[in-house]
UniProtKB/TrEMBL annotation, chain A:
Entry keywords, A to Z: Cell membrane, Membrane, Transmembrane, Transmembrane helix, Transport
Main localization of the protein described in the UniProt heading: membrane
Name by which UniProt lists this protein: Sugar ABC transporter permease
Residue ranges crossing the lipid bilayer per the database entry: 12-31, 76-96, 105-126, 162-187, 207-230, 273-295
Gene3D superfamilies in the record: MetI-like
Signal peptide: none
Species of provenance: Fuscibacter oryzae
CDD domains xref list: TM_PBP2 (cd06261)
Localization (cell): Cell membrane
From TrEMBL, chain B:
Protein name, UniProt field: Probable sugar-binding periplasmic protein
Sequence similarity: Belongs to the bacterial solute-binding protein 1 family.
Protein role: Part of a binding-protein-dependent transport system for a sugar.
Keyword Transport appears in the UniProt entry: yes
Length: 305, 416
């Protein structure tokens, strides 16, 4: 063809709505937050302070203790999700995709429903279930003779975070289940038949054939879990309040940010320190996602059918 | 078709515009969501009847979210015309930021004593920015039937108090005391700041703390924590996960005998509880000691400096400052004691009991509210965690006091 191709305007036109909306509600606020974290109030004026807010956040013994406590709790929250939510999700998907299972559609829907519930409902309902006074948890344990195992889990520093993480797992286990289920269904029958011809059935078939084929999906789920957990806030706030009690044992970055940014009770909000925490959270998530994208995803082997 | 729709839309906006111009609607921001019906059914109709042309909407936020929500609304310019004021620094800061208007010249201000106004004034008392509404008194509410059945009379000393708790516990019918630590503020507000004034001698200790001549690590300030640490044996099973509404329900259902209370509970308890209730002030160390109560200036109302209707808003505030409002408010909400200089007749016996302590005990306000919660870490919020930890047994009284003092010293330098 002679001459250059005409500029393809339709591409720009079709992209424009999404780009504009995304810029207006995501990119501009993001840079606004990053910018805000570089300022602080001195007297009545807003002045540029450079990285002084970060120096306070990481250098001041109180601020840094709160920050590391929140980060540590957040990591633990993530670890529980990775160790409990995702294996259970894979297991449920494997069971659901078994052709011998009856009423698979019912189980699939039932397990997925909590995911679409509001955090407020989930937090409130679990708080009631576990309540030492009105809850059904003590009664149910009593019925099977395990009353001694019961404790006010949400009120004890060493169990509160684990309990909340498990509630969150209960709520979101449907997502890995659905993604893995879809991945399992997309494995062509020829591959499975070939494996059967070679004598691979049951668990061996799962480990050797299916698992490698769904690994990319597991990778995606892991990164979704990571981003979701490090942005989490709602469940803790609904069930433990902004102080993330007892004694800050359930404080994660989201609640720490909320308390700092908006203030709490007599503590007035500090948007500048809040923005510094938000920036730190952004950095943590960015680093995590980058590690995944460059170190893990590039090494995952993909199979073309 | 398109044209008709366009005309219809245009017409409706015009109509809506004129409708707004006729009636001025004032919106009240408040954290008292419990009082919604009282404002809607009693207070607002009384005002609207006397002031045609002004409509008032009461629009409360949950107490724990109020300050954060209000600050965001004010900075976004979407806050209501009337702002319910928290005492001391939270409101002072709003005034300094130019969000609350100066109300010193309001005629109704003459109806209030200097002490009543002190919570909503600048440090030099030159400007007052909220009209005082009410104070709340701390003490203990008890189940009279339970006390009669077990033959206990309301305790006056700490020893009698614990003897009564032991007796209730030994009997086993009732949970001795209904309180939980899950929400933390109960432990600080109904615990530490309820029993504390008897140890630190009310205003004397509070002002000495502000002046820097006393420290939170002094024996008088650690002693309330030591008493709180002993409370844990008398709370219900699983009190660590018991929330504030749980405690209220335990008591009003008749399952607990004593409720560490603030007088704001009276109205709710009167409607919920089917048994007779009584109240006693925080017990003193030895019989005959002077008693001190927390009579905390808690609630006031100010004007959003950026309101579109300053005249109507001031009219409403003049009414809030009137004896007429004081009588109506104090009787609609027994337990919120009017700060108006005109004495108010109250009909509720429990409220009368609470207010009678003003005659025999010395009044003070919560130790952490004035000046000491201005910085970060915030002493009031730290006290919540510390009091809950002490009751849970995860921090010793001495360590909790030491941590609070260190936090305070990190930013607060007493004026020399």
């Amino acid at each position: 063809m002679a001459g250059r191709k005409a500029f393809r305007w339709h591409i720009a036109v079709f992209l424009a709505p999404a780009v504009l909306v995304y810029t207006a509600i995501m990119i501009i606020p993001l840079f606004g937050t990053l910018n805000l974290s570089l300022y602080n109030v001195q007297g009545q004026n807003r002045v540029f302070v450079g990285l002084a807010n970060f120096a306070t956040l990481f250098g001041d013994p109180r601020w840094s203790a709160s920050f590391w406590n929140a980060l540590g709790n957040n990591c633990w929250f993530f670890v529980i999700h990775m160790l409990v939510q995702n294996p259970i999700g894979v297991l449920l998907a494997a069971i659901l995709s078994s052709p011998r299972l009856r009423m698979a559609a019912f189980y699939r829907t039932a397990i997925f429903i909590p995911t679409i519930l509001s955090f407020v409902i989930v937090g409130f309902v679990w708080k009631l279930i576990l309540s030492p006074i009105w809850g059904i948890a003590p009664g149910m344990l009593d019925a099977v003779g395990l009353k001694s195992l019961y404790g006010p889990w949400l009120g004890k520093p060493d169990t509160a975070l684990i309990t909340l993480a498990l509630v969150s797992v209960w709520q979101f286990v449907g997502i890995p289940m659905m993604l893995i289920y879809a991945a399992l269904l997309s494995i062509p029958d020829d591959v499975i038949e070939a494996a059967e011809m070679d004598g691979l059935t049951g668990w061996a078939q799962f480990w050797k054939i299916k698992l490698p084929l769904i690994l990319p999906s597991i990778g995606i789920i892991s990164i979704l879990t990571f981003v979701g957990n490090f942005n989490a806030f709602d469940l803790i706030y609904v069930s433990q309040g902004a102080l993330a009690g007892p004694n800050f044992s359930t404080d994660i970055l989201g609640t720490f940010l909320y308390r700092t940014f908006f203030g709490f009770q007599l503590q007035l909000g500090d948007p500048h320190m809040g923005a510094a925490i938000a920036t730190a959270m952004f950095g943590i998530i960015l680093v995590g996602v980058c590690i995944y994208l460059f170190a893990i995803q590039t090494r995952l082997r993909r199979y073309q059918f | 078709m398109k044209k008709t729709l366009r005309f219809a839309l245009l017409a409706s906006t015009l109509l809506a515009g004129t409708a707004q111009a006729e009636d001025v609607t004032l919106t009240i921001e408040s954290w008292r969501n419990d009082d919604l019906t009282i404002w809607q059914d009693t207070l607002i109709p009384a005002f609207e009847a006397a002031n045609p042309g002004i409509k008032v909407t009461f629009s409360p936020t949950a107490p724990a979210e109020y300050n954060a929500a209000l600050n965001s609304k004010l900075s976004a310019g979407s806050a209501g015309d009337l702002i319910t004021c928290r005492p001391f620094d939270a409101s002072l800061e709003l005034f300094k930021q130019g969000n609350l208007a100066d109300l010193t010249s309001l005629a109704a201000m003459a109806n209030f004593s200097d002490v009543a106004k002190s919570a909503w004034q600048t440090d030099d008392a030159a400007a007052t920015f909220c009209v005082p509404m009410a104070s709340v008194i701390h003490g203990f509410i008890y189940n009279k039937e339970a006390f009669d059945k077990l033959g206990i009379s309301p305790p006056t000393t700490v020893d009698e108090f614990f003897a009564a708790l032991d007796k209730i516990k030994a009997d086993g019918t009732y949970i001795p005391m209904a309180m939980g630590t899950a929400d933390q503020w109960e432990a600080a507000t109904m615990g530490y700041n309820n029993i504390g004034p008897n140890y630190w001698k009310g205003e004397e200790g509070r002002l000495a703390l502000i002046k820097g001549t006393q420290k939170l690590t002094d024996a008088d300030w650690v002693a309330p924590f030591e008493q709180l640490a002993k409370w844990k044996d008398y709370l219900g099973d699983g009190y660590q996960a018991q929330t504030y509404p749980d405690s209220q329900n335990l008591f009003t259902l008749g399952r607990a005998a004593i409720y560490p209370a603030g007088s704001w509970e009276i109205a709710g308890f009167n409607t919920q509880a089917a048994f007779k209730m009584g109240a006693f002030p925080p017990p003193v160390a030895a019989a005959g000691d002077d008693c001190y109560i927390s009579d905390h200036t808690d609630i006031a109302m100010g004007m959003n400096a950026k309101t579109a209707h300053p005249e109507e808003t001031k009219k409403f505030l003049e009414w809030v400052g009137s004896p007429e409002f004081a009588t109506m408010y104090a009787n609609a909400l027994p337990g919120f004691f009017s700060l108006n200089s005109t004495p108010v007749e109250m009909k509720d016996p429990l409220a009368q009991e609470f207010v009678s302590w003003r005659g025999k005990c010395h009044s003070t306000i919560r130790s952490t509210y004035q000046i000491l919660s201005r910085g970060t870490p915030n002493l009031e919020n730290e006290t919540w965690t510390a009091s809950a930890n002490v009751i849970n047994g995860t921090e010793t009284p001495a360590n909790a006091a030491k941590r609070l003092q260190e936090g305070l010293e990190s930013w607060y330098k007493p004026a020399p």
